[in-house]
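Our collaborator T.R. sent over the components below with a one-line note: 'Predict the complex.' Nothing else. No constraints on interfaces, no templates requested, no preferences about which chain binds where. So this is a plain run: every listed entity goes in together, and whatever single assembly comes back becomes the starting point for the next discussion.
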Amino acid sequence: MQAEELTNLIALWVPEQKPGISKQYPEFILPVEKLLEVMTLLKENSTTKMDYLFCLTAVDRKDGFHVVYHITSSEFLHSAVLRVILTDKVNPIVPTVCKIWRTAEYFEREVFDLFGIHFDNHPDLRRLFLEDDWIGYPLRKDYKDAFTLER
Amino acid sequence: MEETLLDIDMQEKEEYIINMGPQHPSTHGVLRFETCLQGEKVKYLIPHCGYIHRGIEKMCEHLTYPQIIHLTDRMDYLSAHINNEAVALCIENAMQVEVSDRVKYIRTIFAELTRIASHQLWWCAFGMDLGALTTFFYGLRDREKILDIFEETTGSRLTQSFNTPGGLMSDIHPNFQKRIKEFITYFRKKLPEYDQLLTGNIIFRERTKGIGMMTKEMAIDYGVTGPSGRGSGFHCDIRKIAPYSAYPFIKFNEITLTEGDTYSRYLVRIAEMWESLNILEQLVDNIPQGSTMLELKVIKAPKGEFYQRVETARGELGVYIVSDGGPSPARIKFRTPNFSNLFVINKLAAGHKIADLVAISGSLDLVIPDIDR
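Returned assembly:
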């Protein structure tokens, strides 16, 4: 499927989506409430079949936390980037997509560990790399500790 | 007497937890499997990682782009060159510069040599995991030859850091092509020995066939890439899907098998070594002339987001750079192959014996610093 067709399709499903800045892949900014619905459609629609989530990560920006999903289809080889923006920086919550792609379960644990983003309905949301009693979330921009390298 | 028998019976029925690792030879690094056993059977297992978490992504936010390349060596140290290449390619794409064909060819030759060296070390360790100590000596004997080629050109054997954004650190050594041709003829003779020693061995086959079945759907769902995914029929070779460097110029096959057990993951890697030799043969005599370094005054990615996928020896490596236009990234994410490959192990090992767990984790070819970063 070409990028234009995909853009039309997503615009049909979610009229309130906004195009993102990426030039490499077609990118869409979704409202948080619509995320699960669109993801499920993207995976199950016979023309998209986005069955492989190859990257899930978060970015700390001025307007909030961005959660970025890179998905592709193993059959048609087309890719897309989806993004949700969580403006609440104190208590960010986003629904989990690990029911759709199992690999998301561990990507989400990593994001929870390093950003403190809470994934709703996640089966096992614990810290992945850091110790359980670690204070703070290191990849947030306002994180400070004695060992951070300042330049 | 009766009481003892009863005790043994109780032990078979009771569940107990055993920690495998963090210091265990078959985990090939510091990884801990919390294994729930019933008798000798694995009921479930939970991988615990983070023992070698160094916060590379956080460190990168304070380093310049050329400095970041040196940190990527320390993720998957057996695919050091390919990790460097991924970051270099991502920055080059961001800056919209294209390196010369000479750089592309040399990078690809290095990448394929790295792939062979990595598969050799995996073959050594996999044999040893299953109790065949001789494989270790055979594999390391041949791997030395590749490391010598690396050392001659880059000055380093393991962590080469030979790529920079815009090219290579230096030109190749005059002996480079001659030694690679020598290596190809040498290794073509030695590779059948690997088959004689391990592939045809009846004990080895019994230990690996039908163990740790992974279906294609499972591989896609869990994001298992590289030879482990291709052993299940998942077409995930980035060299074919999104060709980079010199891969568009050459002919090669993507090796996939459909069985999905430990044995087929083994066969894929052996076949990939043959295929890498073919790729090397196509490239080594055709390295074009040209400069090995673009003259970039300032290395800064423009404002925006960039993603680069490459195929390391273990699967898909993704580099995601978010830039504000400064000399260092606002956020860099490494989507490492081992991270996704690891977590399928619970599904594969459940129901098998604990000795098979060693075979399964060996066949996934885990490098722990790549998981923890």
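Summary for T.R.: Chain B has 16 helices and ten strands.
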